[in-house]
Each structure stands twice: as structure tokens, then as C-alpha cells.
Amino acid sequence: MDLGPESQLPRAGDERAWVARAREGDQQAFERLYRMHSGRIHALCWRLCGGNAALAEDLVQEAFIRAWDKLHLFEGRSTFGTWLHRLAANVALSDRRIRLRRVGNEEALDEGVERVATGARDVTADLSGDLEQAIAGLPERARTVLILYDVEGYAHAEIAEMTGMAVGSSKAQLHRARQLVREALDK
């Protein structure tokens, strides 16, 4: 009994089949992958950009555009979700570097005040006790390492590779971020 074209579609959990179809140019299959992963990618981008909702949306879209363009490079050694997550982190970090160059407001790490990449407010501004706000208020580098290490589970060597900082700097930024979050939550 022929159930029509729907019977030809992969099961919802069969990510590899959806990836294979998308690699062949099937936009509906890629849309399915988007729906499967957009929530997690949005959460990552939102955290990395300090809770800026509009920027997070832009980064999500950019990540999925790059994923579509680079889908032929996906080798399947990890899950598609893992590959996409790494790609999205790199998109967010690349955007951060571009914004920092453009705005030119990144201070030395030892300075007491750093500005967020948008230059909109001091990160030492009065923060509420909310954890997300405390994380969003961290200096860019400290927030990036905290999110990638504590939230997303990357190792310091991976973070160093992704951000272009030394492994020791990644560890120092993590320590700094945790201390700043504790201080913000204690207020």
C-alpha cells in the first residue's frame, strides 16, 4: 500500500537522514533541522551576546545561513547538532570580534571597567540578583568563557582555539567570570 510522498520522509528522530536530504538541496529537510536545533542555538547566541535579543536573532540566522552554505563540509564525525553548535559559537565569537574592532572599546583585562561590545552600558552597572542578568553583565571575554565552559561544556583547549586566547587566559577568564557573578548575586 503506497502512502504517498510522506511515507518517503525520514522519521522525526532520524537526524542523519534529514541532513542527507538537506545536503542534496532539500530546503524542507533543512527547515526541519532548523526547527530541531534553533532553540538551543538561540540560547547559546543569546547568552554569548549578553542577552541582546535582536543580536541573538541575527546570530541565529547567520549561523543557519552558514550551516546551509557549509553543509557539504559536515563529515558526520559528530552529530549534526554538535557541528551546528560549534559553528554557531564561532559565528557569535566572530561577530563579537568584528563589533569590538568597529567600536574599539575593549579595555585591558586588568581594568576595572569594560564595556559590552555594543558599548551601550557599563558592565559594572547596578545588576539585580538574577543569574541571567549577572551573566549578561559580564565583560565579553569572561562571559564567553563562562558560557562555553560552564553552560555548553567545552574544554579550555577548545575555548582557546575558538576564541584565539591562550588556555591559561581561558582559565583566568573563567575564574574572573565566576567571581564577578558571585559578587553580582551577593548584591
- Termini separation: 67 Å
**Major β-sheet profile:** none
How is the CATH topology of the largest domain named?
Rna Polymerase Sigma Factor, Chain: A
Give the count of structural domains. Answer: 2
Q: How many β strands by DSSP? A: 0
Provide the CATH top-level class of the largest domain.
Mainly Alpha
> Count the helices. How many?
8
Low-pLDDT stretches are: 1-7, 108-129
- Residues in β-strands, percent: under 5%
> What is the overall silhouette?
elongated
Estimated structural class: mainly alpha
Order of helices and strands: HHHHHHHH
- Please estimate the helix content: 55-70%
Overall average pLDDT = 81
So, the CATH homologous superfamily of the largest domain? RNA polymerase sigma factor, region 2, helix turn helix motif
* Global Rg: 19 Å
Q: What would you say the CATH architecture of the largest domain is?
A: Orthogonal Bundle
Commentary on this structure:
With 187 residues, the chain is mainly α. The chain folds into 2 domains: 11-104, Rna Polymerase Sigma Factor, Chain: A, CATH 1.10.1740.10; 111-187, Winged helix-like DNA-binding domain superfamily/Winged helix DNA-binding domain (Arc Repressor Mutant, subunit A, Orthogonal Bundle). It has helices spanning 15-23, 27-48, 53-70, 80-103, 131-136, 140-151, 156-163, 167-186. Helix 1 (15-23) crosses helix 2 (27-48), helix 2 (27-48) packs across helix 3 and helix 7 crosses helix 8 (167-186). The protein starts with 14 loop residues before the first helix and ends with a helix. The relative contact order is 0.10. The model is unreliable at 1-7 and 108-129 (pLDDT under 50).
